[in-house]
Amino acid sequence: MVMSSAILLYGRQDYDGKFKIRFCNAMNMQRLDLRCMHYARVSPTASSVQLRTVKIVHRLVVAKAVRVENDVSFSATTDVQTLKDEIYRLQQENQLLRSELRALKPPEPTSPHKNERPHIRRETQGGVREGILWPTPNEPHFWDRAPRSSLGPSYDDAGQDPPEQDADPMHIVHITAEMAPIAKVGGLGDVVTGLSKSVAARGHRVSVIMPFYESLPKDQIIGLKHEMDLDVPKGYRFDGEMRIGSLRTSVFSGQISGVQTYLVRPADWNSCNIFRGGRIYGGSYNELEAYLYLCRSSLEYLKVSGQQPHILQLHDWHAAATALLYWECYHNQGLWRPRTMLTIHNMENTGECRQDEFAATGVFGEIFASSDKALDERTIGHNPERINLMKGGVVYSNAVTTVSPSYAKEVVQGGAAGWLRSLFAKPEVSEKFHGILNGIDFEEWDPATDSLLAANYTSYEPLGKELCKEYLQKGLGLNVDPKKPLVAVVSRLVPQKGIHLIKSAVHRTVQQGGQFVLLGSGHSDGIFKNMANNEFKDHPDCRLMVMYSERLAHMIYAAADIVLVPSMFEPCGLTQMIALRYGAVPVVRKTGGLADTIHDVDHSDPGLANGFSFEGSDDASLHSALDRALNMYKDKQEEWKELSLRNLKADMSWAGSAKSYVQVYKAIAALH
């Protein structure tokens, strides 16, 4: 199949964030559902959809490839590696085409603010309101339907300069338990996807290896196909002893959020239930065994498929054993080029493992059971002594990163590392340890184009935010009052997130004449269920939603005046960054990444100030910051609006962080 170089692309954006797109040429016509972030955007207007002729690359199907601009096709007998090379070339070309498409827009007048667009038009609130489907009283799950009957005024997003292109592109492979949006439990999944896309945009080849969970929505994996079956070494318990055999493993591939992804699972789920179940974690299988198997199967696939990535980036304890296995079993057995990086998202779980349990990798744990490798020193003299996967990953990796500079400091100098603090204090470890701040996906989180909002808005057309607040107030049955500050918490409800402070903030906000909205769940959510069913049941200024909905989360961020993040510890945190992106003002406890990203209005340079912070873990400390925010909203409206607009312009994207990661990649790739 060969497609002409001129392809007509047209479509309209649906409320599910997808485009209905038709490709037209003399030989082929087909309809596809594609996530708009993966391909060149077609910007809808209130009355029509722009029509453009663009160059675009469609995915390879089986052994056929399409190459735009040149009449090149491949037959089923074409060498597999040649096809893989062509896929990579097409991905890079597509990145350049997207940059070229952005350049087609007419030049705009310069602005003193990097992320501010000129005032193309000034909308009246009446014009923006047109087409909004306002929720009716007590309408259940209003967030699950379209918020509008028709497309409203749309805006180009805040816009960023095309990403810098790095010389000497590298191949980076992420090994992870999570990947947004289809396998997301916490921030780990967001980081993997956001970092992968941003590094790829700089010209590098990036792929991800992850579990093929039974619960994955397969329709969201573009071009899902079976790659191969292979035998992966694995330990089994037989007659009370661990023996080494193999497990037949299936590898699948596809695109997730535009990133090449490989998914692994047992070939026969009837004989082995690893990764089976209705959710990402908490299935009927042994999680430690499952993630040790992920580590071994990832390396085995790379070896068998003949890939030689420059970097293996391993995420948290789930993937940490990959570093041990790579250097002991694979580096001298054909998989020679990779260097390993361990990225620590949270030190709360470090992956404790008995030596016999490690045999799930096909390697007995005894070879790692020494203090200079992976032995858990807390178990010395115990029967049995244990090994620790996080420690082993730190020791064996060429570089170790964590998700913010302040959290890195807390790991080395504070108590964040717990018993592993002495390990990070060693010069050979501290020298390779880096704190790199996370970012957020500016395509996924963009109030200018977010199809889940009742009205879009920007720093130069902010009226939509007021309407988003009214929409949420009506939908949740709250008093519709723009003068009441709306405080929001969107969070997992676990002790780390400051449960007692969130509870205190609910009462304080209502007492101070504000409104409070909570969205979240977790093993500490019982207290909020009780509050929702008793003292705050049908309260006109408080709604405690003990559940989670990504759609509702978007609506809450857009409606919120204040977003509260009172974490006891927070390696990075994405909530406060999303809050800034949507023009809310964060109130945070000063720890980890929260300290790196939120600068107090009353204690920072005016050019940096973007929120309110506190240091203590008691109610009085929280109230001091929350009260300052509430009072500013009520008494200094002009200053508040200025602060909100400034936050809308903040650059919390992955651009700077991706550049920092690439610098570390290049440094360790040069090691011999």
UniProtKB/TrEMBL annotation:
It comes from the Eukaryota. Residues 479-642 form the Glycosyl transferase family domain. It is found in: Plastid, Chloroplast; Plastid, Amyloplast. Keywords: Amyloplast, Chloroplast, Glycosyltransferase, Plastid, Starch biosynthesis, Transferase. It is an enzyme of class 2 (transferase). GO terms for cellular component: amyloplast; chloroplast. The keyword Transferase applies. This is Starch synthase, chloroplastic/amyloplastic.
